[in-house]
Amino acid sequence: MVAISDTAIVLMNLGSPDSTAVPDVKKYLLEFLMDKRVIDYPWLMRKILVGGVIVPKRAEKSAEAYKSIWWKEGSPLIVLTQQLQKALQHDLEMPVEITMRYGNPSPEFTFNKIVKEHPGVKNVILVPLYPHYAMSSFETAAEYAKEIYRRKKYPFEMKIVEPFYRHPDYIHAVAESMRPYVEQDFDHLLFSYHGVPVRHIRKGDVTGGHCLKVNDCCHVDSRAHKQCYRHQVTVTAELVAKELGIPREKWSVSFQSRLGREEWIRPYTDERLRSLPKEGVKKLLVACPAFVSDCLETLEEIAVEGKHTFIESGGDSFTMIPCVNTHPEWVKALGILCREKMETVMV
Ligand SMILES: C=CC1=C(C)c2cc3[nH]c(cc4nc(cc5[nH]c(cc1n2)c(C)c5CCC(=O)O)C(CCC(=O)O)=C4C)c(C)c3C=C
Ligand SMILES: [Fe+2]
Ligand SMILES: [Fe+2]
């Protein structure tokens, strides 16, 4: 039972296919990749590329990858988000629901559930579970939730928690979740973030002249940083490494999960995994703080494929550090983020 409250929290994650069956994976990939903020080409071009090339080519391989990481309860990303929901609800003593940008449960389903099960709720705090801004992650989640909210005229106010990539409590949670791993002997720590196309970084640059144009742009103050994924992931890595006391030469950042022929932000994780052993790195730790829940991109792309690449290239030991998932410090941090948002004036 949850205490009666006029506020509810909605945790919004990316989503997964309903099952590992090829038709379900196809349906999910189509919804995901037809999103104009993920593949931002004109509609007809996107339709031809996604429906005619990418999805038919990728669906079976993707389904196999999902099969290899699927839990008996379902998709790890969904199950971990449900576990986070329960832990946060216990912590905050107010209703906490989950929703997904793609697949189920959809924002419409979740908002309807709140209206039906918690008719006293007047305020909803929506938390896109992305620490960093990207057009293809935070922005699409927030805009989609707002679109549904406005279209259906729900009887509550809705506030959205902004990217929290440098929030001290989030940084502390990531650092604490990593601490047991960095206390062991290791040669190097790689922060592997989900990549985005270079074009997305340029497109999000509100100044039109900063990102990837100014020398060492991520470290030069700019209004562009509010929407710069590259800047924000760099800051997270620097703050976490500082809190853990890891010297600068012992960690680096790279970007995984490229799709298509376009140039994505560099360095690429697979290339780094091939070159690190040649630079003398034999014991490697990999952390993926772009994700708050373990998912296909960590459990398969990093823990299986990435490990294989590193060991084949001459590495000795490879450890993937789990995401913050339901770590108590993360549950605490999320509660603080929600409470801070509740205290702001409704717009
Ligand atoms: C143009 C393609 C893609 C962009 C841009 C992109 C950005 C992006 N994605 C995440 C988080 C996740 N992505 C996940 C899976 C996934 N991502 C893409 C493509 C793009 N992502 C695809 C095609 C897939 C599906 C799987 C596959 O076929 O490889 C996941 C995992 C989902 C799961 O069910 O476990 C996450 C999480 C972020 C944060 C981001 C921008 C920064
Ligand atoms: Fe992705
Ligand atoms: Fe930038």
UniProtKB/TrEMBL annotation:
This is Ferrochelatase. Pathway: Porphyrin-containing compound metabolism; protoheme biosynthesis; protoheme from protoporphyrin-IX: step 1/1. SUPFAM superfamilies: Chelatase (SSF53800). Belongs to the ferrochelatase family. Fe(2+) binds at residues 194, 297. InterPro entries: Ferrochelatase (IPR001015), Ferrochelatase_C (IPR033644), Ferrochelatase_N (IPR033659). Catalyzes the ferrous insertion into protoporphyrin IX. It is found in: Cytoplasm. It is an enzyme of class 4 (lyase). Its main location: cytoplasm. Keywords: Cytoplasm, Heme biosynthesis, Iron, Lyase, Metal-binding, Porphyrin biosynthesis. Gene3D superfamilies: 3.40.50.1400. The gene is hemH. Its EC number is 4.98.1.1.
